[in-house]
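Bumping with the actual sequence this time:
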Amino acid sequence: MPPAKKRSRTYDSAKIRAAVLAQAGHVREAVAALPPEVLARPTRLGDWTVRELVAHLTMALGSLARKLSEPEPARHELALLDWPLATASGAAGIDADTRALAADEDLAGAYERTRALFEERLAGAADERLVPTRFGAMRLGDFLVTRTVELVVHTDDLNAATGPDVPDVPLDRQALAACTRLLADALAAKAPGGAVEVRVPPFAVVQCVEGPRHTRGTPPNVIETDPLTWVRLATGRAAWATELDAARVRASGERADLGGLLPLMG
């Protein structure tokens, strides 16, 4: 008999909505203040510049705003825990759409208009409403959790790209928490088991990897890191061996190695 499919944890709808809107607001303030020369700076995302990165952040909100005006799909297809791994299949389309948006000369204005439309359409939409995505229809409540990943990950990308002369965009605590938890749960779904405990204080603890399961006391295989390092590892922004050598990841036990399981999404 195949193992039971792991169920997603429950997220507080009000907190997720507030977190998405708060992080979108932080990005709005940052984008409005970016001088033109900063938009031309490279990022860690291949050949994307800051301009493409800002366009992608616009798309992360704009796509949902548009979908909320479309007819509701007939059935639910994509579960929340399936979303991180599914994103790899949409990379080419995402890149093309991002570059098209980046051609807008008024990126700051485009982001502000998109954010305002997103907030307006979100206000009257129920969590159970189904929305179409590139990867299948999802509950709105679940899709909003994915928006915390998009906003947190790309805010971190933006901070890395703009340099020390531009103030960092703050990360909303609830958005970072939801992003961390979803990516930790996605790891547990990808490598089910109880041999390794992954701790990302103060937001998440999951067990994963097949092998002997501990029942009490300190587990024999433990991995611990901070939320931002975990997010970077899970999305391919950081390498397992590098973070381990730099002591940003602490691992104990012969099975405490996630190098072959990461990244979870690109």
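The tokens above came from a reply further down the thread. The beta strands are 130-131, 138-139, 196-200, 204-208, 222-225, 249-252.
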